Amino acid sequence: MMKFKKLTGVTAIFLGGSLAFTSMIRADDHEEGESSQGGKSISDVMKAGFKGKESMVKRIIAGDEKDDEIKQLIELCLTLEKHEAPEGEAASWKEKTDALTKAAIYVYAERDGAREMLKTASNCKACHSDHKPD
Ligand code: HEC
């Protein structure tokens, strides 16, 4: 499992101790419940990064992203992680959102196979069937 620490202002992300980088990803000033980015909901995250054939996540998987979109996706994933699952097991939600964030960070870090990981982790149906309310 991935471990990462969030620091205010600059976020330092450590992946299993093997890879470290800092970026200007905005850290959250709030604790549980409230998210960063002016309180984006899960729906907001879905609309911003996941919805549609030309979504940000699909462009990134295809290697077709625009400037800064990988960082934006990491932020969206971190926002997802901060929310509780509206439905289903908390442990499953944590596992899925962790995998998603980790994959996005790996893409940012240009790790081999990262986009494939992101494709798996962003499986819409797998997450929706467990965690999306009807
Ligand atoms: C890690 C979990 C997860 C993944 C992966 C995921 N979703 Fe979602 N999605 C959710 C949850 C949870 C909701 C329900 C949010 C709510 O109702 O509060 C949702 C809702 C949505 C919505 C409705 C948004 C609205 O309120 O209008 C759309 C559209 C959507 N997802 C598209 C996608 C697509 C397309 C993909 C795959 C490319 C995807 N999602 C991947 C968790 C996920």
> What is the count of DSSP helices, taking H or I runs of 4+ residues?
7
* Ions, cofactors and other bound molecules: heme C
Helix percentage: 40-55%
Number of strands: 2
- Strands ordered across the widest β-sheet: 1-2
Any idea what the shape is?
Answer: globular
Unreliably modeled segments: 1-37
Tell me the Rg in angstroms.
Answer: 14 Å
Distance between the termini: 30 Å
Strand residue content: 5-15%
What is the arithmetic mean of pLDDT? 81
Report on the architecture of this protein.
There is one protein chain. The protein is mainly alpha-helical. It has a domain at 56-134. The chain has helices at 36-39, 42-50, 56-61, 69-82, 90-108, 114-121, 124-131, and strands at 11-15, 19-23. Strand 1 (11-15) and strand 2 (19-23) form a beta hairpin. The longest helix has 19 residues, at 90-108. The protein is globular. The termini are far apart. The site of heme C (HEC) has 20 residues, from helix 2, helix 5 and helix 7.
How would you describe this structure in keywords?
mainly alpha, globular, binds heme C
Brief summary:
Helices cover 51% and strands 7% of the residues.
List the SSEs and their pairings.
Blueprint: E1 11-15, E2 19-23, H1 36-39, H2 42-50, H3 56-61, H4 69-82, H5 90-108, H6 114-121, H7 124-131
Antiparallel strand pairs: 1-2
This protein binds heme C (HEC).
